[in-house]
């Protein structure tokens, strides 16, 4: 991302969830894919949380986390990129709220409020989901200019490299 793009970029927050197979690997692959998209820089990561399934409970435990981005991509296009990454990582849509290799939800996009047929921001269920709010509050709390500069500079160096572990381990 150029300095000019960084200047006009918007902070967005994406929730990640996985409960099939190698859950950590899916989180890592999704973060790598996001960071490789032109117009997106990953600037913050929450810890990974293991969570009991909510809603449809007859399924395995999830790993959940939240990622902070700076992006110049408009919100609806960003959603389509998230859906494309889900598909690339093998996401199938059978059971509503059912098991998934990876789920990417757009939580916040700057301070925009938006309702279109495809996209509602802020994400309508985020307020009732501890598995979203706990990691989200963690990245929001950690957001400081110095850290932001540091993380984004380091992630830029990593851009394009695969298999780099980008997250902190769950305690
Ligand atoms: N903020 C948002 N983030 C992600 N998807 C959204 C958002 N607002 C609306 N949607 C729509 O929701 C649709 C269904 O998403 P998805 O298949 O991931 O649902 P789900 O994960 O089963 O349930 P949930 O939406 O409760 O997580 C998407 O195709 C998208 O158009
Ligand atoms: N713990 C947990 N439960 C869920 C999750 C999730 O990511 N974590 N996602 C769902 C569908 O969006 C339904 N239930």
UniProtKB/TrEMBL annotation:
InterPro entries reported for this sequence: Hppk (IPR000550), Hppk_sf (IPR035907)
Pfam families assigned to the protein according to its UniProt record, in alphabetical order: HPPK (PF01288)
SUPFAM superfamilies reported in the protein's UniProt record: 6-hydroxymethyl-7,8-dihydropterin pyrophosphokinase, HPPK
Gene Ontology terms for molecular function: 2-amino-4-hydroxy-6-hydroxymethyldihydropteridine diphosphokinase activity
Protein EC: 2.7.6.3
Keyword Nucleotide-binding annotated: yes
Major enzyme class: transferase
Catalytic activity: 6-hydroxymethyl-7,8-dihydropterin + ATP = (7,8-dihydropterin-6-yl)methyl diphosphate + AMP + H(+)
Record keyword Ribosomal protein present: no
Residue span(s) of domain 7,8-dihydro-6-hydroxymethylpterin-pyrophosphokinase: 96-107
Swiss-Prot/TrEMBL keywords: ATP-binding, Folate biosynthesis, Kinase, Nucleotide-binding, Transferase
Pathway the protein contributes to: Cofactor biosynthesis; tetrahydrofolate biosynthesis; 2-amino-4-hydroxy-6-hydroxymethyl-7,8-dihydropteridine diphosphate from 7,8-dihydroneopterin triphosphate: step 4/4
Protein name: 2-amino-4-hydroxy-6-hydroxymethyldihydropteridine diphosphokinase
Organism annotation: Paenibacillus violae
């Amino acid at each position: 991302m150029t300095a000019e793009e960084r200047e006009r970029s918007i902070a967005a927050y994406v929730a990640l969830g996985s409960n099939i197979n190698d859950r950590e690997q899916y989180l890592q692959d999704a973060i790598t894919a996001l960071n490789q998209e032109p117009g997106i820089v990953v600037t913050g990561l929450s810890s990974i949380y293991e969570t009991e399934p909510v809603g449809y409970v007859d399924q395995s435990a999830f790993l959940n986390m939240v990622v902070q981005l700076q992006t110049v991509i408009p919100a609806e296009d960003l959603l389509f990129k998230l859906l494309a990454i889900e598909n690339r990582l093998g996401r199938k849509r059978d059971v509503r709220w059912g098991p998934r290799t990876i789920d990417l939800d757009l939580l916040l996009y700057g301070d925009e409020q938006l309702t279109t047929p495809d996209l509602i921001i802020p994400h309508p269920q985020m307020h009732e989901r501890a598995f979203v709010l706990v990691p989200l509050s963690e990245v929001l709390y950690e957001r400081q200019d110095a850290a932001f500069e540091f993380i984004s500079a380091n992630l830029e160096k990593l851009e394009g490299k695969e298999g780099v572990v980008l997250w902190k381990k769950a305690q």
